[in-house]
Amino acid sequence: MNRNADPGEAEGTRIGGSEEFGMARFMDVHSGFTGMTPGQLRQAYELDLAIESTEGVHFERAWLDPESGKAFCLSSGPSKEAVLRVHDKAGHPTAEIYELLAEVE
Amino acid sequence: MNRNADPGEAEGTRIGGSEEFGMARFMDVHSGFTGMTPGQLRQAYELDLAIESTEGVHFERAWLDPESGKAFCLSSGPSKEAVLRVHDKAGHPTAEIYELLAEVE
Fold it and tell me: Which end of chain A has the smaller Cβ count within 10 Å, N or C?
């Protein structure tokens, strides 16, 4: 067992990014979605899902706060730029994206 | 079956907040964690888990981007203020918290 690859699995900690695994995880943040409905979030998300494979990206979940207009997307993919390209092509670009090097639960 | 309570379950959409269910979901964002290690994220998260029940809150997951110093926490609880109090008591307050009225996957 390669302890370096996943040293924290037993305690619910994931560690590592694209350099280690060739696939990284990302959280991106969208602003300006004030008043967006759940149905509109679903529609926007489906646009991402429809084209994500062209960039080797997979969107796992997305959340919406329609009061502040913020949306958050959790994804995995080869690079930050790949995630950005999917959102660009889907018509909802954002410059705010973070590579997640640790996750706990 | 109450379709209003969960109209989008079949298509992977969750809708609703504390007003509907007495329990809402939140994403909060921390800044200034530049260089934080996965172990330090785990330690901070354990502080939240240790006291979350005093506020009726449950933290589900947290993610860290040590390069930007951003951390994201996904939680459920009775109110935004309850989530904030847990983070305050745990020693890592943040003013940036969003109530999530929709989630898609």
Answer: N
Please tell me which residue of chain B has the smallest CA distance to A6. B38
Decide if A64 and B8 are in contact by the 8 Å CB cutoff.
Answer: no
pTM for this predicted structure: 0.85
Give the residue from chain A lying closest to B60, CA to CA: A105
Q: B63 vs A25: CB contact, 8 Å cut-off?
A: yes
> In tens digits, what is the pLDDT along chain A, a chain of 105 residues?
333 444 444 457 777 765 555 689 999 999 999 999 999 999 999 999 999 999 999 999 999 999 999 999 999 999 999 999 999 999 999 999 999 999 999
- Are A105 and B41 inside 8 Å of each other by CB? no
Global ipTM: 0.84
> Measuring CA to CA, which residue among B15, B36, B31 is closest to residue A29?
B31
Closest by alpha carbon to B90, among B27, B46, B57, B58? B46
H, E, C per residue of chain A:
CCCCCCCCHHHCEEECCHHHHCCEEEEEEECCCCCCCHHHHHHHHHHHHHHHHHHCCEEEEEEEECCCCEEEEEEEECCHHHHHHHHHHHCCCCCEEEEECEEEC
Dihedral of the CA atoms A55, A46, B75, A37 (nearest 10)? 140
